[in-house]
Specification:
Blueprint: H1 17-43, E1 45-46, E2 53-63, E3 68-77, E4 83-84, E5 87-90, E6 97-98, E7 109-110, E8 115-116, E9 122-125, E10 131-132, E11 137-145, E12 152-153, E13 158-161, E14 170-182, E15 188-200, E16 206-213, E17 216-217, E18 233-235, E19 240-244, E20 252-258, E21 274-283, E22 286-296
Antiparallel strand pairs: 1-13, 2-3, 3-11, 4-10, 5-9, 5-13, 6-12, 7-11, 8-9, 14-15, 15-20, 16-17, 16-19, 16-21, 18-19, 21-22
Amino acid sequence: MSRKLPRVTQVARPTPCWSWWLIIGVSFLIAWLSALADSAAQEFEVLPEPQTVITTRESIVFNRLTNTFDASIGVTNMSRDALTGPLVLIVHKANIVLFPPPFPPVEVTVANPSGFDGSGDPYVYLNVVGSLAPGDKVIGVVKFNDPGLHKFTFFPVSVARVPALVPGPLAITSGHCMCTIGRAGGGCVQYQASASGTASGPVGTNVFVHFFVNNVPVPFETRVPSNPFCPFWPDVAHQGFFCQRSSSDPDTTVWSQQSSPFSVSDLSPGFQPVVTVVALTAGQITAGETQSAPLYCPASVPLQ
């Protein structure tokens, strides 16, 4: 006669209170991350191509100073309305393709990113002051790190509109005007001015520096690579120089710049040129501070 085994019934244990709080906390975290992603996507308004903009590859050259490949990319406004910025060029990492594919695999990266979008793709600010009129073109420069000197492509790129930046404080801390070519009997024929200062603000803030003599811009020849951060480039439209703060800059950038050598027409005895250095910041549409300071040059001919 077989013995009947007792039936064992498993009793469900009540879920601990802390686990419910864990589930609620995870749900809130997922919702918060989703909202954060949505807000990041809303901040980047990608402009359709070719309806609104057209991007073109202008040139790509190897920069021996920075050991980067510098690509000039043109952005043309194809719409009937002016495009107010700030505008950025987005380089999609998935579109950076090396050929033939190297082994072992290597990566070509953007060397001068102003920041990264919600997908982690780097972007670079376009130097648009005010707005881009219909039919006008602006050139953006994207620097690429390519240690193996491989052939690569990175098109297509995207153009997007992002929120305006508000620049931080600006200051001119020092400056002087010196004589570069003197007269045989004394005095000066040719001059050169220089100035330095500090600037701050979010990534993408532009810093402009201009030199004037009697309200006439001092002509420039080329950029002066004297700044480890925020290197200056010629500002053709305003006869001066500008630099753009990048993600590698410290919170407060110390800048320095000098004019090209110049001479003045009035060389009467005792004439002393006065150079006015003007520095200003612009945060892509949003204006910042403007500072100016007089720089007194040596006299053209010494008084008798």
